[in-house]
Amino acid sequence: MSAKVVEYWLMTGLNAVINHISLKPIEHALLAGKPLSSQKGQAEAFFLVDDYGNWWILKKFHNNSNLDRNYLNKISLLLPKEEGFLCGTERQVLSHGTLQKIMGCHYDREFDRWLDGTILMPRITGLDWAALADEIRDGTRKLDQLQRFTLCKNLTGLIGLLEARRCCHRDLSCGNVFIDTSTWQVSLIDFDSFYHPSLAIPKGTTCGTTGYTTHLAWNNGKLDARRTWCENADRYALALLNTEFLLMANGTKITGEGGIFDQDELRKQSGGRINSVIGQLRTQYPIAAQLLESTIHSSNLSDCPSPQDWYSLYNTIPGLMFDPPSPNDLEDISPEHLAERFARCKPAAPLWPAPSLLEMPTVVPRIPKFPKLRLPKVKFHQIFFQTKSKKNANSNWRLLS
Predict the structure, then answer these.
(1) Which of 20, 4, 130 is nearest to 60 (CA)?
(2) For residue range 214-256, what is the model confidence (pLDDT) as tens digits?
(3) Can you give the residue ranges of every domain in the chain?
(4) Which CATH number describes the domain made up of 127-343?
């Protein structure tokens, strides 16, 4: 159903105005006539583009009956107003009637009903850690030590900001961490399992992603989302991702989800892969090995190393001194502040390259043509003209000119 609605929209070739944004679906590069999309977990994401070339994501949940709209709306207000959380702070939960009827744009009632409960959000610049890790493993990209620790520092900084607000992402994984390789800035996406003490746990919320889920999420042999519905729930996956940032190399073996840890071993808190990873860390980064071991053998999530514990490692790396953020320096998160901030946001216009001199047209100067001056015929007395002809001729010329 989801693909058919968007596929028909693509076939029309028209933009649709959704919540005052003019958008159209992006066609799949290999499957002609099919919209570009990806399926992950409990939702399918369609990729759109606006009139300025910016990419957007339209996220449709498989089962809208379990959708808690109030929960999703509150997430945007609770997140820190920092660049690494833009996917959450600038997303819009759509409802029936957000598709606008505008002449020359796509509209149909079925599509408008389909949009109810979907999430529209900007696409984050860069690529997810799973894709970047693939490039490292096949040798097409190499990271130096400073770049690796910069990724660790930036991800740890985001988790520190969340903890300062008593928030948790609760589903950190290689697919939910985006990296801008031009700046090595890190962003988080997919906040549908988000925790805050003021929120009630939604039905069907996840415990995490395979390869990143703590052993503490199991209760009597079964996954129990309530075991990770608490503060500090991101610390476990933070340790695993930081380890991957430090050790991912050409030829590194990964699991099905794209990480380097086996979920069965994580649940048992032991195994050959875990021992191998800890051995590599002890050789290269002994402090990181201690932090990972503390995480693997933690008895509760608060026992896992905190962001401040990881800062002690980063401050040993030349050129990477870093002070953890202070809660007093964070922005106000009141709804009024958020509304004011959004009001100042305007879509960026594309910057076209300046033409070269050879491409510029030749400018031909145009000199205006004035009408000929017609002088009245004057008859002079013959004697007067003869005696003062030269003087008067010069005087008349000056008057006429």
Answers:
(1) 4
(2) 999 999 999 999 999 999 999 999 999 999 999 999 999 988 7
(3) 2-122, 127-343
(4) 1.10.510.10
